[in-house]
Give the backbone structure.
Amino acid sequence: MAASGRRLGHYVSKNSWFLLNNCKQSRNHRNFGWSPCLQQQTASVTKESAETIVIPRKKTWSKEAVLQALASTVNRDPTAYNYQFQDDPYLSPKTSAEFKLYSLSQESGRAAAKYFVNNFPKFFTKDFAEPHIPCLMPETVALVIEEVSEAALKERISLRKVTAAVDMYDQLLQAGMALSKEITYDLLDLICLYNDRNPVQEDGGPEVENTELEEGTRRPKGRLRRASDLLKSNWKDKNNAERIFNLLPERETRCYSALIRGMVKHEAYAKAASMYTDMLNNRITGDVHIFNALISAAPHLKDKYNERWDLIAELLNQMRQQKVQPNLLTFNSVLKALRRCGASARSQALQTLSEMKALGIAPSLATFDHLLAIFYKAASPAQKPTDILQEVMLELEGTSFTCQDPNDVLFFSNAMRVCLDTKDLEQGYKLQQLVEVGENWRLLGDFYQQGSYYGRFFGLLCMMEDIDTVLKWYRQLVPLLYYPNSQAISDLLQALDTDNRLDLLPTIWKDIKVLGHDNRLHVVEELLVLMAREKHSPELQESFAVCALDVKSVFESDRGKSSLEWSPSSLNHVTSLLLRANRIPQAWEMLQLFQTKNRVPTGELLEEFLSACGSVAGASQWAVKLVKLSASFCLPATQKLAQRAVAEFELTEEQRAILTDLGSAGEPED
């Protein structure tokens, strides 16, 4: 891998697509060779601007400068809930289910408020905010211009009224009015973006189209559509975008760009390729957006890996021939397509990185996410995927990023998955340190993606670290940044078992209840198994007994569908824990619960109960009751229990006779 590491920073193909002859490269680079670019994240300074020094007459502060300065003096409180839940501490979610309900309720409330503000603006004309906050004021969503004019079409386009805009366009054509190319291209962009449909309303409401019957169906098109149905709709033949495109007297790059990007976005890959061929036949030069879309569509146009790469290389060569300058999204599209090009994609990925370096294009987090996916999937036993991860982390160390690609938010979660799969704790810590640099935490994605990242990080800690370190991170992450799922709780229990810190199980049980995982039978049973597996000091056994009674109350609580059902192992473990703490009456209640739940206790449990009876008052009575219970279950251990009771306890003649009868009744027949 050392050779490949050197190639990551130095390899440049002889058949370079965009390599400039006089491109100046930094000689003090390391590994990938992008460290100066990544640290600065700014455009290169020309000689003229470097020689000219402009001294501002006064310092201009942003409106948020004071707030940012105050925020820098406050550290994060790990015991507090996330800031988005602190408006109402009483309703702050404590479990992942409550978090989901709270988040959906918040979003629903915002959507409802926006609906009323935008649909009834006359009730919100007064603005008391100082300074003025435009996002809190009513938006113009109703159509104002009714006459047939270009201004009316422009208004419908700005309000994203796709159907209304197309109708107005047709009326303008019928009236013989000439339209500017810009307004026609804007309309094409709108139609292609939303696939000739009205966009989903921001308030989550369904969209209703005209009531004509769809072709081949008996349902009216005016039926209610879910947002997911609109998002998943595919490109239709001869839609309004294609119709308007065919009506254009002159076709330019922008109109081709709108259709090609729309076709790729809505999965009409073959039509996009055909449209691109038509553009070349008309001797029209493409733009960077067209090539980015076609490169991302390459894996869907070819079946074989080598054919996919040949198509990508051909598109890149055509970019060079047409003198179209690539951007960051171009190379990210290449790397994303290479993820579906098999093991040979590794060498092509190195070539792509070299081209980026030659053109001075600094990579984003999505670039490294695609790189990890390419090398991790194709890694062989002789080439460990952690090697490429180490080089990536060495390059990113101490860098603050801003989002430049929609896929940037996937890097941290996927990189932590690699750390977890390869059990690379060192790189996991480095990744967490990178998250804490600047505002990189914003690139963790939404709260669900953030939960995925921290869940993998916590799983790695439970697997590789000592329990004290695990608990330190546990207190820092929960509940401020992470609501652990049942798998994370199981990992924590295993970590406690590995370090022999079972004394912390009662405390963890309290957290399990708070986090809402006390309705997970496998979690509860795993906890009981760890507590009942071995005997401990009397103080710890008493603590386990209190915890077992709390577990018993959870089983007996009426929580509807989420109620737990007693299993034979759970009954055995709780009873055993109560016996070891000399809680005989409560243990007897558990034995009676066996009968109620139609469960059968084990012979070892009954023998343990009989041994525990010798140290309490009324031992003989407990012994007789135990043998009777065993006989009611027709257990083979009944005879042995009766013999032990006769030999070890002081019995009355009546009790001795009862035990003798029960012991003889339990003898196996010849």
Observations:
- The radius of gyration is 35 Å.
- Residues 1-15, 19-30, 41-50, 202-231 have pLDDT under 50 and may be disordered.
- The chain has 32 helices and no strands.
- Residues 302 and 308 are 5 Å apart (CA to CA).
